[in-house]
Amino acid sequence: MRAFVLFACALFCLATAAQGEFWCWNADEIQAEVDEDMVHLRHLSALLNCCPDPITFEIEIGDATILVVEHSQDLCDCQCCYNLRVTLDDVPPGFWNVRYRWFDIEIWDWTERVLEIEVPDVGQAAEPFVSDQVGSGCLETMGLPDQSHVPVTWGVVKARYR
Question: Is the peptide bond between 92 and the residue preceding it cis, with omega within 30 degrees of 0?
Fold first, then answer.
């Protein structure tokens, strides 16, 4: 029993130390702003690899859903905080559920947030596209936190080597 308590305390200390290294740890915020037929999406406080280039965005349109998937590379042995923005142009009019998805390295799994928006009819075409994407650049750089406390499963191994 004593060994279990010591293990639990050590695990809690490691997780707390890793979270304290980055101001953006678990602070992801997704925002949407509609400007006529354009939708500006922001991913604020994104913890990414410090060499993520290129950061790309893939979009997919459904009946009432716009899926936006953020992709980045893990090329260096460090992480940092970013503010990202992507603009979708020629978004069809109507009410939309924007599903914004990214690979969250804090939990080594995909995360998704859903935002509801309304796009007015201004005579836009029927097929939206990514017209602009901007990254803040690395706002803070640190070495990788100790992730020995992260359970290793096949999904985690695949995610680390993609």
Answer: no
For the chain, give the DSSP string.
Answer: -HHHHHHHHHHHHHHHHHHHT-TTTT--EEEEEEETTEEEEEEEEEEEESS-PSPEEEEEE-SSEEEEEEE----SSEEEEEEEEEEEESPPSEEEEEEEEEEETTTTEEEEEEEEEEE--SS--S--EEEEEEE---S-EEEPPP-TTS---HHHHHHHT-
| 76-89 pLDDT tens trace | 888 889 999 999 99
- Sign, CA torsion 19/72/107/41: positive
Q: 29: closest CA among 41, 15, 17, 39? A: 41
How do strand 65-71 and strand 94-104 relate by DSSP bridges?
parallel
How confident is the model over 90-134, as pLDDT tens digits?
A: 999 999 999 999 999 889 999 999 999 999 999 887 688 888 888
Q: Pick the closest to residue 47 from 117, 148, 147, 130 (CA basis).
A: 147
pTM: 0.72
Which pLDDT score is estimated for 144? 43
Q: Which residues pair with 16 in a beta bridge?
A: none
